[in-house]
Amino acid sequence: MSAYQHILLAVDCSEHGAIVARRAKDLAKKYQAKLSLIYVLDNIPMPDTTYGTVISLVEDSGYELLEAEKAKLMQIGGQWGVDQENRWMIWGAPKQEIIQLAEREQVDLIVVGSHGRHGLSLLLGSTANSVLHHAKCDVMAIRLLNA
Asked: How many independent structural domains does the chain possess?
C-alpha cells in the first residue's frame, strides 16, 4: 500500500465524531498527509444564499442556524488542527457530496463513521455504505458501537 497523500474526514458533529476524527488525525500524522474535513448539511433548510451548495466559511450568511453549523465545523477543524482552507461545508446528500469532493480534491482516503445499523436502515443504505461502494479511492469506515 502506498502512503496516503490526502485524507478526507467526513464529520457529522455527533457525540461519536471524536472517535472518527482521532483515527483520521492519527492516519494523517502517520502518512504525513493533508487532512481535510467535510460536513454535509442535509437536515436544515437551505437559506436563499449566493453560495450555491458549497457554503462559504468566511462570510456571514445572516442565517442563524447556518451560522451555528459553521461554528461547529470551525471548532472541530480547530480542535483537530485542520487548516481552514481544508474545511468544507456543503448542503446536499452526504453520500453524493462526500464522493464528489473527494474526486475534485484528489483525496486518496475517506474516513467516515459507521453506525452499523440493521434491518430497514441497512436495506435503505447508510452514508458509510454508499461511500464505500461508490468512491474511487480507499474508504475507512470506523465502526461506532452503540451509536
From this structure: 1
